[in-house]
Amino acid sequence: MNILLIEINPFAPTMTPISLGYIAAFLESKGFKTKILIVGQDTSLSRSGFHELITGFQPALVGLTAYQRTMLYVRGFANLIKSMDNNIKVAIGGPQATFMPSGAFKELSDIDYICRSSGEVTLLRVGQAIKNRTPFSDLAGVSYKDAQGVVFDTPEIEGFTELDHYPSPYLNDIFDYSCMNEAVMLTSRGCPYHCIYCYTPHAFKHKITFHSVDRVLEEIEWVTKKGVKRLWFADPNISCNPERLIEIFDRILTHGIEVKMWVQTRVDLVTPELMKKMKQAGVGVIAFGLESASDRLLTKLGKKITTEQVARAIRLAQDQGIEVELFTLFGLPYETFEDAVKTLEFVKKNKVKIMGNSNSQQMQIYFGTPLARHYKDYNIRPLQNSRPAYLSIGSQYETEWFGSNELQKIQNMWRANSLDGGKRIVS
Amino acid sequence: MIKPAIQKIYVALAKQQEKADFQRLCRLLSGLFSYVNLTSNLYLVGESLPESMPRIERIQKEVGKFLKTNLFARLYLHFVHWAPLTTAKEVDYYLRYYYQSLKRASGEFDREGFIHQEVPRLILLPVIAPDNPVESATLIGLLNALKSVFMLPCLYLDRSTFFLAQDEDLLTYTEKVYLGNGDSRAPDEIACNLFYQDLLDESLAKLASKAVFMSAPCPASLIISAKDGTVYGCMDAFRKNERLTDIYGKSADELMEVYYEYDHSKRDCRECRRRTAEVFADLPVSETKKQYIGALLSQCQDF
Fold first, then answer.
1. Which residue is closest to B71 within chain A, CA to CA?
2. Which of A367, B60, B79, B302 is 20 to 30 A from A298 in CA distance terms?
3. Contact check, Cβ <8 Å, A69/B116
4. Is the CB of B257 inside 8 Å of chain A's CB atoms?
5. How many structural domains is chain B composed of?
6. Cis check: omega of the bond before B133, within 30 degrees of 0
């Protein structure tokens, strides 16, 4: 049985869809044939071309990654698939799907499954059910709509706690290296922290799971042999276990692997020793989450860091010649316009270039976060109360302290200080 | 291997066209949308807006129909026209009777974009070729008004209006400035210049990304001359009048079959890119762009 996995982001250049890669490798190991389609800004694909793909590959199941900003396109593809062959089952997964209310099925007429648990194991069960011609039996980790349109929620399903149990998308040649400029690596999943605006800790129940150092090194050696010169680590906090990270870097150095790396972590998880090792191993850029330069706000956000720690981490990186990127947000709960200006000033004062990921953006309120669940408690006022059930509040809100005009004003201030027009790469 | 999608369609509208022929063109375009990229560009090049307006409106309607049933698609609709914009009264007239009317027709996509917190899937880009004499302040007023209703205004300047390319104030209100080599206002000629500028921009982007591209064909495009219904597979073919087919008696599917059989490798793409760079080196582009064009030309020689 064939399964097509689609990642859509028409607003950004194509990147390695690492999560779909894992799902594909896992499904292949269980006997399914998979194909990944990445639809990015630079993809050449027409309706007719997509038709050709579906006719040629004949998938029984199509899985689409859903993000808040791509829901319209996800619906579009689902509709196109169903118009070509109504027997093809369509599933959505990813950040927007995990906590999407089941009521959204009403407006998602072409979607059969909303995947909520770990992608690999969830989609395997869906695939097996379809293969057995009982598409709605023995499912877990999904909500589904049966042939009569009745919606059911199934129990959660746990993914593996040992990440090495998932086959590697790289070692199994899931991706085409000929057009890969940089490889996205995922050496750990989840986040143990409690930031109220972030989806990840809640989706992973505040747990973090790791790949072994051996596996990470095997993948790095493999992709660099294939000609990849840059690695982009998607781990939310790469140095959550600093000893493990030092071991990875040590082995990169011992094996003589020459590669440039981008990593992200928390400011309280770096030390001078680690930073020195990062530089030696080839880390060119490190990104930290600052969010706000107001200590009062950092406490309220559950961030558990101080601006002093941020400044210190920046200096540690800059002293080693590692470029720093700072993730910042505006429109935060309890944030005043003056607080927001302070954040911009902090970034400038600490000599972080305002470009790429250091361009600030308005906070987005995603499904599943404490902010989305208790927005009224945070004095957040959604601007639209009639949005489709598959969309969360996103950026359409005001706070008690921050109106639409102020949001626009601070955005313009960031843009005016930006070296590249103000578009952030990672959202 | 999936066949490549058409990235851009350039339609040089005819001043006078039989109703039946225009309907044929609309049907063809509507069929071609299935072959265009998920994000694509359609250029409608007319003469004066009052003359072209009914045809632009009709084609915009076809675009709207396609986008409405195909939620995965996005389209940039550039409508190119010249306009006498000397007085505030003229500007007001254009704004009220033409631009706002076109904008209203795309209102549902603006609403859809707002609900989904994203840019609309149909973006209107008026490309104004101002008549000389022209008052820069008057033009700024129009561009500003267009921006305020989320239309992204562009300018097409030719030898008679090149002086506007030096007007920093004006440029801040302009999404993109196209430059015409010569002073012809014929839609075919303007379409050709737009194409070459797009090709130059593509070459410069590839040069910046250090890609090997000098002999690579231009992004997949179709050029349609409504005057005689001829269809061309690239601008070099258009220049040399080497037609691919015509709009008569052919469906979009049949046309695309011919297009995919058309052998781009027989065309001298490197020469086309080189000539384009050479032409623009003599036009009033910014100093930085001139330097990039110089680098591009030197790459052409090294190749």
1. A76
2. A367
3. yes
4. no
5. 1
6. yes
Find the CB nearest B5 among A45, A73, A80: A45
Chain B: closest CA distance from residue A117 (Å): 25
In a domain, B115, yes or no: yes
Q: Which residues of B touch A45 (CB under 8 A)?
A: 2, 5, 37-38
Substitution target in A47, A73, A415 with the highest count of B β-carbons within 10 Å is A47
Q: Is residue B275 part of a domain?
A: no
**What residues of B are in contact with residue A96 (Cβ under 8 Å)?**
none
Q: Residue B61's domain spans which residues?
A: 6-266
Report the amino acid identity of residue A271: T
* Confidence at residue A218, expressed as pLDDT on a 0 to 100 scale: 97
Range list of β-strands (E), A301-426: 323-330, 361-362, 380-382, 397-399
| A384 touches B at CB < 8 Å | yes
Among A43-57, A194-208, A409-423, the minimum mean pLDDT is found in A409-423
**Mean pLDDT, rounded, for A403-412:** 94
Chain B's closest residue to A67, CA to CA, is B116
Task: Name all domains of chain A by residue range, CATH numbers in brackets.
Answer: 2-153 (3.40.50.280), 176-417 (3.20.20.70)
CATH code of the domain containing B143: 3.20.20
Which residue type is seen at B118?
E
Contact list in B for residue A395 (CB cut-off 8 A) is 117
Listed residue (A166, A250, A238, A251) closest to A208, CA to CA = A238
B interface test, pick of A41, A46, A54 with most B CB neighbours within 10 Å: A46
Confidence category of residue B1, pLDDT binned at 50, 70, 90:
confident
Q: What is the pLDDT of residue B84?
A: 79
Q: Give the confidence band of B50 by pLDDT, cuts at 50, 70, 90.
A: confident
Q: How far is CA B222 from CA B8, B33, B218, in A?
A: 7, 12, 11
Mention every residue, 6+ apart, whose C-beta is less than 8 A from residue B271: none
Contact with chain B for residue A336, Cβ under 8 A: no
Q: For position A426, what pLDDT does the model report?
A: 56
Q: pTM to 2 decimals?
A: 0.93
* Among candidates B4, B70, B74 on the partner chain, residue whose Cβ is nearest the Cβ of A47: B70
Long-range contacts formed by A391-394: CB under 8 A, 24+ apart: A391/A68, A391/A71, A391/B115, A391/B116, A391/B117, A392/A68, A392/A96, A392/A365, A392/A366, A392/A367, A393/A365, A394/A68, A394/A69, A394/A364, A394/A365, A394/A366, A394/B117
Grouping H, G, I as helix, E, B as strand and the rest as coil, residue A111 is: coil
Q: Would B301 be classed as within a structural domain?
A: no
Q: Which residues contact B104 (CB under 8 A, 6 or more apart)?
A: none
Contacts of A355 (CB under 8 A, 6+ apart): A418, A419, A420
Token pair of A95, please?
């950040």
Answer with the residue of higher pLDDT: A314 or B217: A314
Is A86's Cβ below 8 Å from some Cβ in B? no
Query: Which distant-in-sequence residues (6+ apart) come within 8 Å of A280 by Cβ?
Result: A249, A253
Distance CA B198, CA A294 (A): 46
A114 contacts A100 by C-beta, under 8 angstroms: yes
Q: Does B2 touch chain A (CB under 8 A)?
A: yes
B290 inside domain: no
The number of C-beta contacts closer than 8 angstroms across A and B is 77
